[in-house]
Amino acid sequence: MSAYTVYADQLPGLLARWNGKYAVYAPKDIGEGIYDFRPWRQGDEIAWDYDLAYNSLKRFLIPPKEPLISYDLSRCTAEPIFEAPAQLLFGVHPYDLRAITQLDQLMESGAPDNYYLRRREQTVIMALEPLRVAEGSFWGSVGAERVDVGFDLYWTKLGPSSFLVEVGTQRGEELLLDGGDLAQATPGEREAARRAKGRILSKARKGMAFDWREIPKLLGKAWDSPLWEQRSELCLACGSCNMVCPTCYCFDIREEVDDSLKGGVRYRVWDSCMLHSFAAVAGNHNFRRKALERYRHRTYRKGKYIFDRLGELGCVGCGRCVRACTAGIANPLRTFNDLWEAARNEG
């Protein structure tokens, strides 16, 4: 993998050029220790040391409300609506990149989601090695600390004035060299980047009492665990854990008919498997009427169902659900550890 050295005084010019081709989003400090990806404008400060973006990045690929088709009832016609703006996400941490590559695999398989795939094709991803780990994050303990695909460029801060930039795609290299030739990274700079990755990883490996690869097997024997009822009794069924999760992608379909009742637009909107209405069907049936069933389903999706399909967990350890859950029960790390401890005591 080729790599270049970029100096801090070269970056504003690069960002300005990219901003002429793409809508550029970068992490910003929005106050009170909260960071989020916001539109970048000339002169904006990038929060290089951000620990966690408040909102997940899935909103750039699966908007909370996305138009799918417009229709004319008087003519009985319908046309697809594809909105895929050219966008550049600068500063994506590896766990969020892992979530995106997971979505890539899921959206490409079976019946491909062309709405997602068109947005993804129009999205440049420039990853960034973290400098800090958020308090509730545990991405180093669930296999989400390193991603070798899915990014166009991968930036590692070597010091206050320089970066090592690894190339992931031809598109990324062309964008990087858009302003002229750059120096190839030296062996010493590559070694400095490797050490930087090792330092942050040692801080991100925390909390998991056992090897994360054992989680699917653990859940295979935990279906009737009393933990599901104990935790779900506190659940408010608000769906916050799903809304902030970077790997949750379930949606509902809504219709908005115009005032003339002759046309309208069909949208998809984010949905949550933790809501009572999620599994409700005709005839007053509900496949997950109980909070216990919904809580257990979310845990199995994170720890087993996605693993069975892709070989990786559906949880990337970002910790957003830990922040969002007012009942204090959404933390997958705590759930997995408690199930593991219960299994040890039974054995």
From TrEMBL:
It holds the Pfam family Fer4_22. PROSITE patterns: 4FE4S_FER_1 (PS00198), 4FE4S_FER_2 (PS51379). Keywords: Iron, Iron-sulfur, Metal-binding. Residues 224-256, 303-335 form the 4Fe-4S ferredoxin-type domain. InterPro entries: 4Fe4S_Fe-S-bd, 4Fe4S_Fe_S_CS. GO terms for molecular function: iron-sulfur cluster binding; metal ion binding. This is Response regulator receiver protein.
